[in-house]
Amino acid sequence: MSEQLAKELQLEEERTAFPEVVAAAEGPFITGENIDTSSDLMLAQMLQMEFDREYDAQLRREEKKINGDSKVSISFENYRKVHPYDSDSSEDEVDWQDTRHDPYRADKPTTTPRRGFIGKGKDITTKHDEVVCGRKNTARMENFAPEFQVGDGIGMDLKLSNQVFNALKQHAYSEERRSARLHEKKEHSTAEKAVDPKTRLLLYKMVNSGMLETITGCISTGKESVVFHAYGGKSATEDKVIPPECAIKVFKTTLNEFKNRDKYIKDDYRFKDRFSKLNPRKIIRMWAEKEMHNLTRMQNAGIPCPEVVILKKHVLVMSFIGQDQVPAPKLKDVTLSNEDMKKAYYQILNMMQQLYRECNLVHADLSEYNMLWHDGKVWLIDVSQSVEPTHPHGLEFLFRDCRNVSQFFQKGGVAEALNERELFNAVSGLNITADNEVDFQAEIEALEKMNEDHVQNHGKKLSMFSSDGDPPIYDE
What we know:
The protein is of the alpha+beta class. The chain contains twelve helices and eleven strands. The radius of gyration is 41 Å and the shape is elongated.
């Protein structure tokens, strides 16, 4: 009794674990009651079928295990054993998902024969039939881009007119092109407060080499660049000391920001031979190199400005003007006392004279937005557009800087502040005596024209400095 109970329990466990195998094992071809087993061939076929059914059951278990609840499934139907002598029907074993026909999928409209019509007599239907064309247009929507949602129009028997289909088709193509443009711009340009993959790789190399310890985040954004804060690391050479805090200036690689800025660099003799209108991306690297050279000149002259650490393509690493990740405030954002305001004015006047006479440079964008207040003094930043006074528009840029400085300090209550014409003469040393601004600018343009004519005739610029370092005096 106990042996029989044990066998029944074992069979029940096998049915639970392997239902298909047990069901196959209980088939009529195993019992020998209904099938003649006197033939060796018949026995061999029966044993082979038993083995094949167990193999197919294992394949189904593997298939179910791999697919799980996934909407995309795989099938081992081609690996299952099929015998011509298998008389059992396999319709209940093959799921409809394993076949190529989907009973829940609407059939696509049939194509019109080459003769252009179907039917006879009154039942004739041409390829221009409204219903036929509408169903064909609905089926064609499946050829749109995957991101363009079209829905199940075939299943709803939707009929689109040619006008509606053409409008949807044009809209789908426009969206596809717009998406491609946005993707390209994202990958190939430095976006707002972000960097493209190539720039990110340059920053990673700086950190991995140990030159920078870590990059903390963005501290400033502008039309032409993005500035990040970083903690300095160790230099590869002993003679180069990296500041504890650094500012990383990344020049944006979007060309539209520089399309109107080439006037600052194409006439600068230092970069004129390398300037190429046909390769604008190199201009961006040249722009970063220009700021590095200008900062080096200013640093050698003792003008307060960021110290250059290294330049890598369009990424310029400088010393950080500020403390503990907090950048120094711009002169327009800080509230100074009358004494400090007066002190800042005379300091800027002295720096403009040093910049013109010792560095042979004109800032070309000097204003309260590009001057920082730190440690009780003014620091100059953003000198990528700075040019030499011999630039065809150098004196115009200087006059514009003088106007910005004069207006800011006059509004700030500095009684000693000179007007723009007096400040221009004080900085440049030119004795331009004009009663109004129009005549003053006309004389500036005449001086620039004279310098440009000399370049065309003799091939070099006029020396803006005499041998003793004093600015020249132009005689009329």
